[in-house]
Structure formats: structure tokens, C-alpha cells
Prior knowledge:
By secondary structure, the protein is of the alpha/beta class. Helix content is 53%, strand content 14%. The radius of gyration is 29 Å and the shape is globular.
Amino acid sequence: MTEKKEHWEKVFATKQETEVSWYQQKPQTSINFFIENNISKDAKIIDIGGGDSYLIDNLLEMGFINLFLLDISSNAIERIKNRLGAKLEKVTFIVSDILDFQPEINFDVWHDRASFHFLTSEKDIAIYKNLVTNSVVKDGFLFLGTFSENGPLKCSGLEIAQYSEAKFERIFGSDFIKINCFEENHQTPFDTTQNFIFFSNDRKLVLSPLVDYLQNKINTNEEIRLNFICTHNSRRSHLSQIWAQTMAFHFGIKNVFCYSGGTEATAMFPKVGETLVNQGFEIQKLSQEENPVYAVKFDDNQHPIICFSKTYFDDFNPKSNFGAIMTCNNADEGCPMVFGAEARFPIKYDDPKAFDGTDLMNEKYGERTILIGVGIGYFIPNSADFINSFSSGTTNIPLAIGLILMMYPPLTKIDFSKVPKMFENPRLLTASFFITWIVGPFLMFLLATFFLKDYPEYMTGLIIIGIAPCIAMVIVWNELAEGNRKLTAGLIGINSLLQVFFFSLYAYFYLAVMLPLFGIKGLELDITISEIAKTVGIYLGIPFALAVISRFVIKKYLGDKFFNQKFLPFVSPITLIALLFTIVVMFSLKGEMIVDLPMDVVRIAIPLVIFFAIMFFLMFFVAKKIGANYRDAVALSFTASGNNFELAIAVSIGVFGINSGQAFAGVIGPLVEVPALIILVNVAFWLRKKCF
């Protein structure tokens, strides 16, 4: 018998029903939920951790006939059985720890007013969340009641996790639509008051018509023909067509044929092709007229996708038995009725055309691709299952290879022979070490715990980011701001070595020691220093060793000129390609979350932007104070303010898993860093005029 089960068996063996704080003769709040949502009398309803609650009695009196009661205590179950008498036949009793529960059916209503807040570790919460998601039918309901942030810290002598609306949304928002959330005071039999928060939800129906359409086609083994339609068939519709066809193939969904068209024909915008080439597609221009024809290859053994601008009713497109997917921003109002379509599905994407010719053009076209990947990751059936099928534990094999490849190119560029020269200027080295390795991690820790205390996965993700100084993109920022190249190279070398040997210790210190020391409750990290060290060894140690070996061997046998002019330009794009692969895969897996919780991106971005700014200005003015010139100050500042997001993403995925909030925070990082650091490059030039 486990310690937890033993505890609850003792409670229900030694205490009468009125001697426990949760006693209610008539649980009116729960009863109101069933009335207000017009729950069918034959709905399959499960009450989690119900103990000897009177909810089942009241539901039976209301006419419900398909009830399930789960509790860890057999004593509690026996007590309610004795009370119900002949009504037992309408109730199925289950004695089980909720974390061990393996339901054989799906439920219309999942009710839990007693057990969820006893789950205090992220691992247990994730198990519970997945159990709920997989057990509640598509149009079903979730009703949760827990102690609020104004409620007790313990119940029945056990630690609990307090909840707020934001915390509920963070955990369940990707799969359920909130119906209501409110706080309520519960009067105990001992005349004390406990503040509860209740959260009622309906299963989300976002994109479900399209999902159902595709699934029905798959079930009946019919061809799936999708026509992506926008006004000019020049940007969004082509990106959607190409990514849908590509992902359907790679996710093993057969008989999928994707098309695109518009209300008028123009031409596929050239930047669309450039964006796709940057993301690994091969594109051949087959004609040179004003409306060129392109062949887009996504696999060596598959026919290319033929792309050119055309109307949706062009002879190249299907005339009947297809699904019309409207990619216009105002698809419902602005796009026409599509004749011949079996069904019509509005999926809105903002037009990147507004940024044509601007400095944000590349960024916005890449952003459109990510958002299209988000949508496709939701509506292509089983895409997440397919990606996760290549996993071993928390390690996704293709993604692990991609993460190692992502780290390799920047490490090959580091000339470790320059590291000893750094010790010739101990003042600069000391200032850099103190601010980058002492102030930086602690600052990110403070920002993460202040802004993301209610989002523990994001909080720990940001802490991991804060202890990984940049060793790659800092070269770009330093170059743009006309900083000292040799100093930057030396700092990168030192930071790389420090990360290899000390990152694991730093991560363990801040996550396992500092969080409890600062009284962060409701978060239990089941990690060890060996887990972190193993992950760092794989994702930093392997590419580090390969980089050192390849640098030595190539320079020795092929010379410096070949290494610098041939090899480095060849391997450099691998980092961007691998990073884009990571982003697309993760955004596909987390697509539902991005669609429903866009504010989470903002929540993660705010502390990151503050971190970049504080670290840059602090290092810059400290450098000036100790006598550094502009070029040295810039090199020090960008080294201190940038982060090694590649390593942070790899560690988060390796330790917490690809679906974790920590990994999600890591992916958001570079999307925030690029525009923020570009702004700081311009700030550096302004400071040069003012201070030097």
C-alpha cells in the first residue's frame, strides 16, 4: 500500500463524514453546473476523488443514470455504497489512484472538486492533463474545483497547489474552452472558511469541422483534395498548399492532393520562393513569363508540386469533391462561394504583403510559414503522434539529430587559440565573467519568477535560457555594431568551455536549490544533476568534440584557406535550417496552444526583452567605466546580453520533453531575440556618438 493510499484509507476509516472539511450535504455549485449546461441524463459522468461526497446522491435524484465514481480509498467507496443501497446499479465504482487510472471508455463530463490540487509536481499534473484530454469526448465538459490563491496551503495535512484562472488556462486552455471561472467561499463543519476556485470548460471545436472532414475521408479511404484559396493566389495560398502537401506526405497520410487558387490570377510572389528555399525546399523555375511556373520539391522520391498563380476554378484545379480552405484574412466575408466544393473552411492568415520592401520583410514571411505550420499541425490528423512515434523516453530522435546539427556550426567557428590572449586584459575578462555568469543568470531568475510565477514551465524555461550565454549570433550582432572581432572570438571561446563544464551545475543550482530557497510553491521538479549533465553532454559535448576535431583535421590536411573560405560557408547555414526545423516541428506539436493562447508568447517575451536591455546597458557602461573603447564595449555588451537558445532548447527538450512548456519558451526565445538585438545594434551606434 502506498503512503498516499494509506493516508486516505485512514481518514475514511477514522473520521465521520461531518468531521472532514469538505463535507457538503448538497454540493450546490456542482449541481448548478449540470443544470446550467443542460447535461443529458444518460451522459457518462465521472466524479474524480469523490470519496463519500453527496454529489452522486444528488445526481441520482436528478435522474442521471450513467455515473462513475473514482477514489483512491476503498473505505470511502464502501461508505457511499452502504449509503446508496438499491441505487448502486446506476453507479460504477473505481478504486484507483488517479495517476494510475486507465479508463476503458470516454466520458461526457469529468468532474473533480477534490483531487486535482493534491497534484503538486509538473510530471503528475501533465499525466492528469493528458488523462483528461484523452478521456473526455469532443463535445464533453470538464469541471474542476481547487483551492484558490486565497485558500489554504494544506488539506488533510497534505501539501496542495493553489490555482488561479491563469494557471487553469495554462494547463487546460489548449484543449478546452473556458465556460466560466469564479471563486467561492466554502463553509466547513468547523465554522471556518475555505476559498475555492471553480473552472468549467467545454471541449474546443477550433478547426474541428476540417479535422472531421479529413478524418472521414481517411476512414473511407477516399482521396483528399484540398484547394487553398486566397484573393490573388500569390502568397498565403501557395505556402499553405506546399506545407500541407509536404506534411501529409511526411506524416504518412496517403491520397492527399493539395491545390491553390484565387479569385484572380497574378503571380507567385518571389519572396515566397525565397522563404521556402531557406527552409529546405528545392525550387526550379520552369518558365519566364509574368506568371512563372515553379516546380517545388519536398522529397527526392516524390513528384514536385507545380505552382503558379491561377483562379480557384482553373482547369488545373479540381471541379468537384474537394474541400475549399479559405486563407484570406477575412475569408468568411471576402471570399466567394466556391462551386463544386464539398465543404468550405475559413482559416485566417494575415497577409505578409504589407511588409513587402521593408526591413521586416524576411521576418514576416518566415512568421507566416510558422503560423501556417501551426494550423496544419492541428488539422493534419495524427501529425503529433507521427512525430512522437520517433521518440525514446523524452528524446525525439530526429529532433535530437537536428539539435546537435544546430550546435555544430557555431562551435566550428570558435578559435580556441585566442582564449589565452583574453588573460592579457584581466579587467575586461573579470567584468565580462562577473556580469555574464553571475549577474545574468540571477537577473533572469528574478525576472522569470516575477513575471511567470503562475506559469512554472515557462518560468523554468526562462531560467535555463538565462544560464546559457550566446556563442553564435553574438558574432552577427558584434559585426553589425562594428565591435571588436578578436575580443568577441575570445569571449565566445571562454563561454563555450564554461558551458561544457559548468552549465549542468548552474542549471541544477537555480532549478533545484534557488527555486525552493525563494519559496516558489506549487512546483516540484523531478530532475537530477545527472539528467542535466547527460543532456548537456549529448547536445553540447558531442557537437563541441566534433567541432574541435573537424577544425583541427581540416586545417591540418586542407589548410586555413579551405577551412575559412570553403568549409565554414558550407556548414554555416545548417544552424538556421536546423533551428527552423525545430521551430516548425514544435509549433506543429503545440499548434493548438499557439492558436488559443497567443498571450503566452507575450508573457515569455516581456522578461526576455527586459533582460536583453538591462544586460546590454549594464555591461556597456561597466566596460566604459573600466576604460574600454567603443569596439571592446560593444563586444562585451552583446556577449552578455545574448543567449545560447540552441543549448537552452536542447536541454529543455532533453530533460522535460518536446511537448513541455520549457521547450516552448526556448523556441519563443530566438523569435524575440532577433528584433530586440537589432534594435540594440542601433542603440550601440547612438551610444558611440554620445559616449565616445
